[in-house]
Amino acid sequence: MKTIQLKSRFLVLIVFFLSQVVISQETEVMIRAKSKDAKFIGTSLGGARIIVKDESTGKILAQGMTRGSTGDTDIIMNNPQLRGKRISDENTAGFLAKLDIKEPVFVTIEAYGPVSKKQAAVKTTTQQWILPGKHIKGEGIILEIPGFVVDILSPQTHESIEANTNIEITANVVMMCGCPVTEGGVWDASKYEVKALISQDGTEAINTDLKVMGKPSTFQGSINLKPGNYEITVYAFDPETGNTGVDKTNIIIQ
Predict the structure, then answer these.
(1) Reported pTM
(2) Burial class of residue 136 in the structure, from the number of CB atoms within 10 Å of its CB (0-12 exposed, 13-18 middle, 19+ buried)
(3) CA–CA distance, 206 with 210 (Å, rounded to integer)
(4) Pairing mode, if any, of strands 206-209 and 167-175?
(5) Residue 76 Ramachandran class (φ > 0 left, ψ -120 to 50 alpha, else beta)
(6) How far apart are CA 215 and CA 147, in angstroms?
(7) Rounded to whole angstroms, how far apart are CA atoms 119 and 223?
(8) Rounded Cα gap, residues 253 and 158, in angstroms
(9) Cis previous bond, 180, omega within 30
(10) Residue 140 contacts by C-beta under 8 Å, 6 or more apart in sequence?
(11) Which of 127, 126, 128, 130 is nearest to 102 (CA)?
């Protein structure tokens, strides 16, 4: 009888112990990075780097890159946005984070991109509670990345140019998803302010407008400079959305 009682107590203890053990569950969270006033950042521009951290400890729970297409232009940009209606599909760029968690975790999610354009890349963050076994899929969590990607095509860095020469300044401007800007297009180049600021040895910059050419995303202007070392800063600005992008180069006028 005593042996049976001891066994019963032992079994009760085991059951109690097991009831206290919290088993971790893999929880999937779809995370996407979307260009402000444009489409998703995907494979075509190197993607966006996603990091999911436990806010209380700083531990990285998952990290990776968004992969996939920029999405459907009509659905994202042209069709009315209705509550509950998705703007992404199974091909749209995203990163499926798989978190191994035992209890509710308050996370910080970072998106940094587009990673292929370091001078334009922006980091944005959001925070949210994640519950074990409660997947967040489909549209998932979308982080917005503001700005333009601006690349100065000419003059080239540290290029030496003769004085009294007409210097052509050419820049490529696209949305953060890589989408082109064109006159009268979905992203109307004529509505953006694109300028070149030219300064010499820290002096006050002079500026010249860059106008969109026939080629998509290409803006051009010209200027004549005296001998010296110059820094050229080209910026693009959308007064409606606040999107802004910048690139710089240096030249020598002899």
Answers:
(1) 0.87
(2) middle
(3) 13
(4) unpaired
(5) alpha
(6) 21
(7) 24
(8) 10
(9) no
(10) 29, 30, 31, 32, 88, 94
(11) 130
Token pair, residue 67, equals 């992969």
pLDDT band at 5 (very low <50, low <70, confident <90, very high): low
The amino acid occupying position 186 is V
Distance (Å, rounded) from C-alpha 31 to C-alpha 54?
16
Omega before residue 155 within 30° of 0, cis = yes
Tens of pLDDT, residue by residue over 98-152, are: 999 999 999 999 999 999 999 999 999 999 999 999 999 999 999 999 999 999 9
What's the CA angle centered on 130, arms 125 and 135, to 5 degrees? 110
How many Cβ atoms are within 10 Å of 15's Cβ, its own excluded?
10
The backbone torsions φ and ψ at residue 51, rounded to the nearest 5 degrees and listed phi first, read -130, 130
CA–CA gap between residue 175 and residue 196 (Å, rounded): 18
The token pair at 207 is 């500026």
Instruction: Tell me the domains of the chain and their CATH numbers.
Output: 24-145 (2.60.40), 148-253 (2.60.40.10)
